[in-house]
From TrEMBL:
Domain annotation Methyltransferase type: ranges: 47-151
Region listing for Disordered, in residue ranges: 88-111
CDD domains listed in its UniProt record: AdoMet_MTases (cd02440)
InterPro entries for this protein: Methyltransf_11 (IPR013216), SAM-dependent_MTases_sf (IPR029063)
Alphabetically ordered keywords of this record: Methyltransferase, Transferase
GO molecular function annotation: S-adenosylmethionine-dependent methyltransferase activity
Protein name, per record: Methyltransferase domain-containing protein
Residue spans crossing the bilayer: none
Amino acid sequence: MQLSAPEFYTRFARAYDALARRGPFVATLRRALADALDPEPGATVVEFGCGTGANRPYIEELVGSDGRYVGVDFAPGVLRVARERDRERYRNRDEEDGNGGEYVRGDAARPPLRDDGVDACCGAFVVGMLPDPAAAVREWADLVGPGGRIALLDLARTTRPGWRALNPAFRLFVRAGSPPGTARSLERSPATVQDERVAAAHRALREACADTEYRTLLGGFARVSAGTVE
């Protein structure tokens, strides 16, 4: 029986957590996302596709103890691991020292949140999985409202000369990390679809925001966009 996407990511939640926290260069990328989002101290930040919560410490450093982190993901297994990690992290801290963070099961394309009180939102490695990533980004812009911040961190094949020779290896990486049957259901290479979805999401961010920032890392395979909603 073929696993659904939430079932797939639930089954491999612990393996994903190990990669998300200790994989090569992940700390650099997660720091880049938090710095690009640049939330104010005391802000409420929503992360879509939060996985096992690997970005939470970087965001909390910026919002401080008066801020609030909300992680949203569609896979119950990764949320269980995220909550376990938080219990380990805060075990020796007074309850009041935390920032009131929480995890919510939900769809990044249909935010399960009210549109008041959210100051910023972000997504890491998630828009490539959404059928209509541009529409999702517009939903996020509506959620934070004018003056709110949005940031995206994604992987896609590089266009940089000298690095494009690694694109075939990246294509295999994307296929290996996709639920079984993804290529057949898409009728195209998962890497090609991911490239298109990432481009559409980052374009939608630029259209929704002013003072947008864009940078690439890791030879052009990683893309970071951020801006303030107009």
